[in-house]
Amino acid sequence: MSDESHSVPPGPRPRPWYLSAGLALLAVALVLGGAWVYARVQSPFPFYGTAYTPPIPAPAFRGTDQDGRPWTFTPGATGRATAIFFGFTHCPNICPLTLAYIERVRQALSEEERQKLDVVLVSVDPERDTPERLKAYVEYFGKAQGIRIPEPTLSEVARAYGAGYQKVDIKGPNDYQVNHTTAIYLVDAGGKLRVLWDYTQLPAVERVKRDLTYVLENPRL
């Protein structure tokens, strides 16, 4: 996965991306509950989701969109908030539910508020999720953008956001599932990570909408 120079003695081999992903997934699961309690105490606004206290700059990244075009996420550049979810199109349950519920939340916003929000699905299965497949998938659920990032860059981007993923139930090269972090990360118009929701929170559409409306009205510029 990395080039090795023959003129310099090789150092320790980097951990394979799938091991890093598995460790990240476990770490997120362990700390999410405690982070939610802490954030509820520290945040000046009583977020339903888990607030970033204080808000932190969101990592930038690049990929290919569902139309096969180069795509760059530069936090704060568009003046819109961005909801980011790490998932994949072969996901049997969590991803369809997540995209369906975040679309319900989006539809619950006013027309003016909807113009201030982008929804992005970053595929954790770049081997199978072609731009064409991503396009059909995200358009079925509404207005999300589907983004494909190759390995090992995908692992680096996911880790930067605190997300993890790992192939499981591998029966063949194209027959497997992917365990992954089930959070949606909300980046405000100023490019700061403000709040995340686990997919189990999304059915409470009005509560998620309340968080989102607050962030849309109060970006950390």
Describe this structure in words.
- With 221 residues, this protein is an alpha+beta fold.
- It has a single domain (17-217), classed as Glutaredoxin.
- Helix content is 35%, strand content 28%.
- The protein is built from 6 helices and 10 strands.
- It has helices spanning 17-42, 94-108, 111-114, 131-141, 153-161, 205-217; strands at 50-57, 61-65, 70-73, 81-87, 117-123, 145-148, 165-172, 175-180, 183-187, 192-198.
- Strands 1-10-9-4-5-6-2-3 form an 8-stranded mixed beta sheet.
- A hairpin with a 4-residue loop joins strand 9 and strand 10 (192-198).
- The longest helix is centred in the N-terminal third of the chain and has 26 residues, at 17-42.
- It is globular and about 50 Å long.
- The termini are far apart.
- Mean pLDDT is 87; it is low at 1-15 and 33-41.
The CATH homologous superfamily: Glutaredoxin
CATH fold type: Glutaredoxin
What's the CATH class, please? Alpha Beta
The CATH architecture designation is: 3-Layer(aba) Sandwich
**What is the count of distinct domains?**
1
Q: Secondary-structure element order, as H and E?
A: HEEEEHHEHEHEEEEH
Strand content: 25-35%
Q: How confident is the prediction overall: mean pLDDT?
A: 87
Which percent range fits the helix content?
Answer: 25-40%
Radius of gyration, whole Å: 18 Å
Descriptive keywords:
6 helices, two-stranded antiparallel sheet, eight-stranded mixed beta sheet, 221 residues, 35% helix, disordered N terminus
